[in-house]
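Backbone-to-sequence.
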């Protein structure tokens, strides 16, 4: 059994839904995870924002526009009157629920229920289409088995028991269709796995089902060795270690959600990144064993803020670093990079929502300076410290580009540098020319 996940662009139109159906019916007994149709979740967020602001006419107009879009999809996707009626009824139920929120103040729980409707609609449409085509597919509602613990982590045992039981009850099924992203929390309320969570859903399901492979289908042929938006001639990386993929995903490679890697890694289930627009392309295989002694890829993470705390009096004092890190913890802000010296420590953050309060607290410990509009550029590969020349190649490539920070040695798979936003594209191009 395999788990195949298709993102929003892959099911973003009736034509693409039919193409996905053609792909998934080539093998039996696989589990198919679908995202919402592209643009839907953003529209649902917009509806929730109108409701929070009490702008009911704005919410009504947006709901009506989305309803018209989906009814057009029903007409274009399906051919028989019976299938159209089933699909239209499913879509109408969703929009009746959305409209029920016009008459009451929106709560956080209500917002999460609204955001869940995109995946419910895309899977209903796919199920109706497969039934019309004579495929014995079964719709497995994610809200019946996906659950998180109080910590927000997936309740793996609950998911495994419930999902296996649901699958075992359908011995004649050719395919199983379910929703990505959505789940229930430990109180039983509708919740979600945050943005990009459909990848996470696929990885969790692959782990609990002991799948042969997890496939993530998008509109690009694997993870490239640099960002094709800025660098010409990039190529897909054929094989990545799980650690390399995690670094790239965290530091800007949008094709894969960072959380997706861990469940697959722990259960030793390979992930394959494939392209719905070019199904024959080999894509990228992510696993625990890859060829070593290579630099694989480059990624960039934007909107980074660097913070330097300088204090010759306190840095060597017991507890100084603890106090610095505790400041970020108190403000629920994670750190990306860190560099230390005898007189100071520099860190980077990608969330500056609490920056003013953090800086104010850090001034108790030393002189604080802040650099905004920075970019972390991450180079991944086999960077064991015993291997010579790899880190020097990275730095040689950046000759003439000011580097604010360097992070190396915290991982065997990553060297990261911090540069100004204005130098990002030049740095990416220089690294590609030197390394690949």
């Amino acid at each position: 059994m395999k788990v195949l996940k298709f993102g929003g662009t892959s099911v973003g139109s009736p034509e693409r839904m039919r193409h996905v159906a053609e792909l998934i019916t080539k093998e039996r007994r696989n589990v198919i995870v679908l995202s919402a149709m592209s643009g839907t979740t953003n529209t649902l967020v917009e509806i929730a924002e109108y409701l929070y602001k009490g702008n009911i006419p704005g919410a009504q107009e947006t709901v009506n526009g989305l309803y018209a879009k989906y009814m057009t999809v029903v007409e274009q996707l399906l051919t028989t009157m019976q299938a159209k009626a089933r699909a239209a009824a499913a879509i109408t139920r969703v929009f009746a629920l959305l409209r029920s929120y016009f008459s009451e103040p929106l709560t956080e729980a209500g917002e999460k229920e609204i955001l869940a409707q995109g995946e419910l609609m895309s899977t209903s449409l796919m199920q109706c289409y497969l039934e019309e085509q004579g495929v014995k597919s079964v719709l497995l509602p994610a809200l019946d088995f996906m659950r998180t613990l109080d910590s927000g982590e997936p309740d793996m045992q609950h998911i495994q028991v419930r999902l296996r039981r649901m699958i075992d009850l359908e011995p004649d099924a050719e395919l199983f269709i379910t929703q990505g992203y959505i789940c229930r929390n430990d109180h039983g309320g509708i919740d979600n796995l945050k943005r990009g969570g459909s990848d996470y859903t696929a990885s969790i399901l692959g782990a609990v089902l002991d799948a042969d492979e997890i496939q993530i289908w998008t509109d690009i042929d694997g993870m490239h060795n640099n960002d094709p938006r800025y660098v010409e001639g990039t190529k897909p990386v054929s094989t990545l270690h799980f650690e390399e993929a995690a670094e790239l995903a965290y530091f800007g490679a949008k094709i894969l959600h960072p959380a997706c890697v861990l469940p697959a890694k722990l259960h030793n289930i390979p992930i394959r990144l494939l392209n719905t627009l070019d199904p024959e392309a080999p894509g990228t295989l992510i696993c625990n064993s890859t060829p070593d002694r290579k630099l694989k890829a480059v990624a960039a993470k934007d909107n980074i803020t660097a913070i330097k705390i300088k204090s010759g009096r306190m840095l060597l004092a017991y507890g100084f670093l603890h106090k610095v890190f505790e400041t970020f913890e108190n403000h629920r802000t994670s750190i990306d990079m860190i560099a230390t010296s005898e007189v100071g420590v520099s860190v980077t953050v990608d969330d500056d929502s609490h920056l003013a309060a953090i800086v104010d607290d850090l001034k108790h410990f030393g002189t604080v300076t802040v650099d905004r509009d920075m970019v972390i550029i991450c180079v991944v590969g086999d960077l064991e410290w015993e291997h010579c020349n790899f880190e020097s190649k990275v730095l040689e490539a950046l000759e003439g580009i000011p580097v604010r920070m360097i992070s190396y040695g915290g991982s065997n798979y990553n060297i990261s540098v911090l540069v100004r936003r204005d130098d990002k594209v030049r740095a990416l191009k220089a690294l590609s020319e030197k390394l690949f």
